[in-house]
Design a protein that fits this description.
- The protein contains 8 helices and no strands.
- By secondary structure, the protein is mostly helical.
- α3 packs antiparallel against α4.
- The chain is globular and about 40 Å long.
Length: 166
């Protein structure tokens, strides 16, 4: 158990991925999160070079999901821990260029960061609007070769390209 929070990480992840309702899109689905992020992340613990081949944007999704989940923890220091995980998510996201390595995980991370800022700052934060704009740009960048994707990948990515972000 994390000493700074009342809940363990799996509970925080469940709060976000099963109980959190998003207005028009489900950016991170539980099965996708487990298969694409949790399993490879925990499998890399036994790797001699841990996280060497793990995509930074996927790691960013992991951190931001925990950060959003921490916002719903009743512990007194939960907000501070949530801000720390938001900072971890931003740092992990910055490790890879979105111009060279934009993926579905990039979109998920940016969307969840904007959602985190919406929850924590209701004053119409300029940062949130900048991230939403960047998310739209990344969606456009990733969706441009959309018609050339294999069928398996096109189904997963269609969630991001058939909805409005703003």
């Amino acid at each position: 158990m994390n000493m700074q929070l009342g809940c363990e990480f799996p509970e925080l992840i469940s709060v976000v991925l099963t109980n959190q309702s998003f207005p028009s899109v489900d950016p991170v689905q539980r099965g996708d999160f487990d298969n694409a992020i949790l399993e490879p992340l925990y499998a890399s613990v036994h790797d001699p070079v841990p996280l060497a081949h793990f995509e930074p944007h996927r790691l960013s999704v992991f951190f931001i999901v925990i950060g959003v989940g921490a916002l719903f923890d009743p512990h007194t220091s939960a907000r501070i821990v949530a801000e720390q995980y938001h900072a971890f998510a931003c740092a992990a996201f910055s490790l890879e260029s979105i111009v060279d390595g934009a993926t579905s995980a990039s979109i998920q991370a940016l969307f969840m960061m904007a959602h985190f800022l919406l929850i924590t700052d209701r004053s119409g934060s300029e940062r949130r609007w900048l991230i939403i704009g960047l998310t739209s740009k990344v969606i456009h960048m990733v969706s441009w070769p959309y018609r050339y994707l294999p069928t398996k990948k096109s189904g997963r990515r269609s969630r991001f390209f058939s909805v409005r972000i703003a």
